[in-house]
Amino acid sequence: MRNSTLQGLSSSIARWIALIAYLLFLMFPLYWMAVTAFKDNSVLFKMPPEWIPVHPVITHFTKLLSDGAFVIFYKNSLLVSIGTTLLTLLVATLAGYGFSRFHFKFKEFAMFSILSTQMLPVISLLIALYSIYNSYGLLNTRLGLTVALTTASLPFSIWMIKVFFDGIPLSLEEAAKIDGVSRFGILFRIVLPLSKPGVFAVGIYTFILSWDDFLYSLTLINKDELRTLNPGIAIRYMGEVSYDWANIMTICLTSTVPIVLLFLFFQKYMVSGLTAGSVKE
């Protein structure tokens, strides 16, 4: 009995050590990005390196926030990401509800056809998309970029939110119909409130996808006053020969703030949304 207890304890300790080591491995790049933002460029290449800044500086942050171009890039990213999230939620909600509640010919084929568009690499779509946008005057517009990012996020969003709608009993909708509630009233007053984790999960997923976008933004926007954060960083702050690494790490650290805030406030919705449908009762 004692030997089995010791073996169980040793196994538990080993698992915890492995888990902590793996967590440190994953978190170290983020930690190094954060501490580099508070270092002067003169100490970045010291050997041995400074694991904790001896003389932390905040001049990189003050310089960055006073840079008008960075503020413009940040604002554009926020506008495009929020617009993409709202538009995706609207379209995904209507499409997901239709696929969940209505039965029609070739329904399964239509659903898999939508999802299959995710298999196409973005780079294979950009030439055709650029040509279409050029014909309709959508190049160098936030609206055009928002529409492009919405189409990229819709397939997975529709499938995700449909799973939540499938889990809501039809009896609730039938009772509402008896009370005279319209179809849209049922959707927005009954179904959506009960699907709040799914809505938040889709919203967070879409916001992260649009915030991290690089290829669409780089291809469809070529005016500095309309650039989003990622292509703006690559074009303005990264040179061909040398890099201001402390400044770049400051930019990267600042750009993670919206994503970190999203996960802090809506983590439980994200987890429940991504795990929906994984277990059948």
TrEMBL record:
The keyword Manganese does not apply. Gene3D superfamilies: MetI-like (1.10.3720.10). It is found in: Cell membrane. Residues 74-266 form the ABC transmembrane type-1 domain. InterPro entries: BP-dep_ABC_trans_perm, MetI-like, MetI-like_sf. Its main location: membrane. Keywords: Cell membrane, Membrane, Transmembrane, Transmembrane helix, Transport. Signal peptide: none annotated. The keyword Lyase does not apply. The chain crosses the membrane at residues 12-34, 78-97, 109-133, 145-165, 186-208, 245-266. It is a multi-pass membrane protein. PROSITE patterns: ABC_TM1. It holds the Pfam family BPD_transp_1. Belongs to the binding-protein-dependent transport system permease family. This is Carbohydrate ABC transporter permease. It comes from Paenibacillus hexagrammi.
